[in-house]
UniProtKB/TrEMBL annotation:
Domain Acyl-CoA dehydrogenase/oxidase C-terminal positions: 238-385
Family: Belongs to the acyl-CoA dehydrogenase family.
Protein name (Swiss-Prot/TrEMBL): Alkylation response protein AidB-like acyl-CoA dehydrogenase
Organism of this sequence: Sphingomonas jinjuensis
GO cellular component: cytoplasm
CDD domains per record: ACAD (cd00567)
Amino acid sequence: MATQPMFFSPLVDTADHHRELRESVGRLVGKFGRKYYQDCVKRGVEPEALWQALGEAGFLGVHIPEEHGGSGGGIAEYNVVVEEAAAQGCPLLQLVINSITAPIIAAHGSEAMKAEWLPGIAAGTKKICFAITEPDAGSNTHKVKTSVTGDGDGFVLNGSKYWTSGINVADAVMIVARDADIETGDGRSALSLFLVPTDAPGLSYQPIDAAVMTPEKQFVTFYDNIHLDARALIGKRGAGLRQVFVGLNPERISAAAINNGIARFALAQGAAYARDRSVWGIPIAQHQGVAHPLAEAYIHVQAARLLNARAAQLFDLGEDAAETANMAKFMAADASLKALDQAIQVHGGNGLSYEYGLADLWFIARLHKTAPVSREMVLNHVAQHGMGLPKSY
C-alpha cells in the first residue's frame, strides 16, 4: 500500500506558506495513516491520539484568531489541513464540524464564550457538535420545530434533531432553535442559536445505525425542558439564521476538502497498484485502458481542488463565497466518487478488501453528495443566483 499520497500542490495553493503547511500536516497524519483510522472505526473508538497530535501541532486552530489560541489564519489554511488529513487516509468529520462552530463563536459569541471555547477547540481539548437538521426540516431551516421560550433571564429548550454527529464525545452542542417569542413578520418564528452543554439535564440521544464508516457516530438528539441561562445564547436573539451562515460556507469548503483528500488517497493507491501489478510480464499501468481512466479522474479532482481553494480564498477576503463553495462541494463529491471507483476497479477483487483501504471510504465520499447540502439544492442555488433563472422551490 502506498504511504505518501501525491501532493499536487503547485496548482491549488493560494499562498506561499500553504506548501509547507501541507507537507507538515501530511507528515504528522502519515505517522498514523489509514490502518490507524480503520482500526479506530473497527473498535468503535475516537482517534484521540491523532486528534491530540493535530491540536498540539497547532493545526486544529489555524482558522482561529491568535488572541483566542489559534494561528490567525483563515479557511484557506484550514482547507489544507482537512484535505491533507484525508489524503493520508484519515477523513475526520469532526474537522468539518469545527469549521462551522469556531467561526460562528469567533464572529458572534460573547467574549466569555470565546475565551471558554476557542482555545480548547484550537488545542483539541474541547469539542462542539452542531445540531440543525430535523426529519421534517432538511433543507428548509425555517421549518425547524425545536423551540425555545423565554424563562426569566434564561430560556427553556424543547425538541429533537436528526443526524447530529459526535454528540457522544462533544462537550457542548450548538443548536438552531425556533424562538417562539419572536415573530419574523411573515407568520413564522425567528431562529436563535444556543450553545448547550451535553451533560445538561433533559438532553439525551440515540445512535443511528449508518453505513458511513467513520469514528464519528450519528445520533438522534432530544431536548426535553432544558433550562438555559442567558450565557447560552450566541449573538443576538432572533438572528440565528444569519449567524449560522457564517459557518455554512466554511462547512461546504471543509466537506469538499475531505472528498478531495479521499480522491487523492484513492488515486495514489490506484497509481501505485497499477505500477506494481504485472500481468503477462508488464505493469498494468502500461495499458491505456488502465492509465487513461486514472488520468481523467485526476483531472476532475484537480479541477475540484482548484475551485475549493478559490472558495476558501473568497471567504477569507470577506467576499460572497456562497456560489463558489456550493459548486466546490458539488464537484468534489462527484470527482471523489469517480476517483475512488476507478481506484477500486484498478485493484480488481482486492479493491473490495478492507486491507487495501478503499472500499470502506465509499460512503464517506458518497455522504457529501447529500450533505451538508444536497446536490439538488446546490443546483437550485446556481440556477437562481448564478444564471438568473426563476426560483423553483
